[in-house]
Request: fold
Amino acid sequence: MAAMEEVKKLLGRDFDSDELIMYAMEAALEKIKKSKFKQTDRPKSPPLAKVNKSRVISAHVKREIFRRDKKCTNCGSIHELNYDHRQPFSLGGTSGIENIRLLCFQCNQRARIKMKL
Ligand SMILES: [Zn+2]
Reply:
């Protein structure tokens, strides 16, 4: 009822039940689309196609990786951490979450030598 009074104030007039139903249905539709189909005007992650074609690791992926790994995935160090492509981009690796990990500088260098890059 408080919401109804607020709507009346915003409209600057009274409204009938048909109008009330219309507004309620529009609001419900919007809410259902957002929760069920994840529709939003501002998506938080880039389209997958973009992730797979660029060597650059997106902010979204970096956030997720840091939240997941927090430290070097090889030795556990928290110093000089780098984002590393498990499968090198030059060998077809993507910049998606599944192919990126945190490695410290030392482990990153060792991984490069091992991969002969
Ligand atoms: Zn390390």
